[in-house]
């Protein structure tokens, strides 16, 4: 009991320190000065059955303050009205170009094959890969260019403002806060470039094209599940600096509209980013048990403090557990609010921890059983 309470206190202290330093660094990056350079930039958007979202995404790119760009949309064999939407926009703005995607090659994941084709078609010195469910503020491109040039980096990603309507769907999406509260030391990673700490999200991948050429495009990762994180790791592993920023002022995203899709999509990412091995399984098992313990730490500490009236021996464990819980979930709430989540989602941290564990266990089962994941009507094993 005392050991668990002490571990919980250490986790809370670590979360408080890491979240504080991460928030400070993200605020610093937001204040990056505007560069005087104006290279040609390719906005590249893979699209598969996105007729409900593609227009607002492309229009947000047409309205950018940075104008020296092209907007390439690859129609990945859609069966809806995606093509019609893009072709109409192409008539409005000559910078927009519709590309009909080729049939999926053997050995490739669908999105990665689309990204490879966009890479080959692009003419820009820099590329901004983004998803159809994003909407970009007018300075989105300029911000990314500023950070890459200022810090001499080759890849910039980060967390956009995540939008949703359902409280549980939103809470499930918020599990990504684990990275900035308990995992990723942003400023230290900028110096270390340790592949294991490399982080990215496919909603915003601002890339220096020369670096992408140097790693062979996407051909070296053509069958991975979590392409964005693997891209960041590949960059770091090959000496190309990758960075992570706060993007809520420049990009918003409605990633999922239902709890079911949110669960399926997030478990795919969680399972795909973790190496499958016996040692890793046991490491994840220990981490899962810790997350479950943290999720119930507040009622646990409360019970101990109540019992301590008759049993003073549990006063110390109860106090340590209570302090650790407040530090942990106080840090969670603070970072959730910083990333743009509403207060009603920010206070759902304990439930987010349980969601992470359940998604990993279910995703692991789908992967080892061979059932795999189904995404965009394609099976991923």
TrEMBL record:
<feature type="transmembrane region" description="Helical">
    <location>
        <begin position="345"/>
        <end position="365"/>
    </location>
</feature>
<keyword id="KW-0472">Membrane</keyword>
<feature type="transmembrane region" description="Helical">
    <location>
        <begin position="313"/>
        <end position="333"/>
    </location>
</feature>
<dbReference type="InterPro" id="IPR001173">
    <property type="entry name" value="Glyco_trans_2-like"/>
</dbReference>
<keyword id="KW-1133">Transmembrane helix</keyword>
<feature type="domain" description="Glycosyltransferase 2-like">
    <location>
        <begin position="42"/>
        <end position="214"/>
    </location>
</feature>
<keyword id="KW-0812">Transmembrane</keyword>
<dbReference type="InterPro" id="IPR029044">
    <property type="entry name" value="Nucleotide-diphossugar_trans"/>
</dbReference>
<keyword id="KW-0808">Transferase</keyword>
<feature type="transmembrane region" description="Helical">
    <location>
        <begin position="278"/>
        <end position="307"/>
    </location>
</feature>
<protein>
    <submittedName>
        <fullName>Glycosyl transferase</fullName>
    </submittedName>
</protein>
<dbReference type="GO" id="GO:0016740">
    <property type="term" value="F:transferase activity"/>
</dbReference>
<dbReference type="Pfam" id="PF00535">
    <property type="entry name" value="Glycos_transf_2"/>
</dbReference>
